[in-house]
Amino acid sequence: MKIIETKIAGLLILEPKRHMDERGFFSEVFNQEVMSSIGIELAWVQDNHSLSTQSGVVRGLHFQTQPKAQAKLLRVVRGAIFDVVVDLRKQSSTYGQHVSVELSADNWQQILVPIGCAHGFCTISTHTEVIYKVSNGYSPDHEGGLLWHDPALGIDWPISPGDALVSPRDTLWPRFNEFNSPF
Asked: How far apart are CA 16 and CA 31, in angstroms?
């Protein structure tokens, strides 16, 4: 597995090998020994699967607070997304900064989102399916978010706020300058 570090500590892009032949391919997409060998000791407790039927669906920017904070290991099995992670850890040298990456079924990359970061994505193709592991179960009492299109974050989303398909909840999160990070 190829491991790509980013400017945000703990945020990794993982690229599993695909063994291809005339039948298709085989890929080992998760291996705890490989994760341990690079210092990642997370217990995954839940797998989630989302389908977005249209291009331009925005989900995020989400996080959960302690004691239910979540790390995520996310991959796209059909379609493509513009994926964004924002560092919310006050003591981090990249606090308030983001990393964006395109994840797709074609490029077969995954992203490991550490605890203390907000995460979101925008679908850039129709019928996009995302599968991700989380290190803690969903807890509505511990969920939080940031307004996805806040200009202060400097994210160059592939869609304008007026054209995005967003849940009502995701339009109500605070802007970064109104936000007191719990991390």
From this structure: 10
